[in-house]
Amino acid sequence: MPSLESLIGYTFSNARLLEEALTHASLAKKLKHEVPSNQRLEFLGDAVLQLTLSEVLFRLWSGADEGTLSKGRSRLVSTLALANMARRMGLGAFLKMDRGEEANGGRDRDSILADAFEAITGAVYLDGGMAACQELVKRLFEPDLALLLAQPEDQNPKGRLQEKLQSLNREAPTYHVLESSGPDHDRSFVVEVRWNGRVLGRGVGRSKKEAEAVAAGVAWEAKLDCG
After folding, report:
1. 192-213 residue pLDDT tens
2. Which of 46, 101, 144, 212 is catalytic?
3. pLDDT in tens, 14-56
4. Which of 6, 54, 141, 195 could form a disulfide with 173 if both were Cys (CB 3.0 to 4.6 A apart)?
């Protein structure tokens, strides 16, 4: 199996930073924090991603106003978007977690994958500086940026879904929080969208609003027969 460094195209000078970025809190706690969890690097990586992608969008999307830029960035750094990025990299196979977390599907959980991706971004920033981090982010996000610039209208997935459904039936879709977890400053929500007695989609986000939007997007992309 290729190394994670070969998959992301970056070789660490300080291998301990990569080890920390891949260590889930469940294992760090079990080892009595002999190896730090990736939570601190996740905090740093989140900020670095926000800044780097803000600059990329500012330069590439010259005709976009502040609100459009902000919404575009939110699409790129949503929990689901980062989790899907991590899946494309095969990141789950490299994570270090205890057996209980793994048995509960931790290697493919959106929140864990997104957090680990942010942690790796933070680790690259500390190891190689902002220039190395910018090069990594631009390369990994290239297909996502291309899609965003080609399809910028996906800024109100809830409204678009509701309009479509109510053209078929006057009943409006409803959103239900299935799960919320994490500390107050870093919450994660799982939301389900239902309509006409059916579950149409599920989304994960760092706010209920974001999770609802993701769920609506999932429902739309599924191209379900809603009649």
Report:
1. 999 988 999 898 887 888 888 8
2. 46
3. 999 999 999 998 887 777 767 788 999 999 999 999 999 999 9
4. 195
Tell me the CA end-to-end span of the chain in Å, nearest whole number. Answer: 46
pTM of the model: 0.69
Active site residue 46: yes
3-state SS, 70-136, equals: HHHHHHHHCHHHHHHHHHHHCHHHHCECCHHHHHCCHHHCHHHHHHHHHHHHHHHHHHHHHHHHHHH
How far apart CA 56 and CA 148 sit, in angstroms, is: 12
> Active site residue: 118, 127, 210, 212, which one?
118
Examine the pLDDT at 217 and tell me if it is beyond 70.
yes
- What domains, with CATH codes, occur in the chain? 4-150 (1.10.1520.10), 157-221 (3.30.160.20)
Tell me if residue 198 falls in helix, strand or coil: strand
Distance CA 222, CA 216 (A): 10
Which are the contacts of 196, defined by CB distance < 8 A and separation ≥ 6? 165, 169, 171, 226
Cα–Cα distance list, 18 to 11, 139, 218 (Å): 10, 19, 32
Nearest-angstrom CA–CA distance, 58 and 70: 10
pLDDT at 164: 81
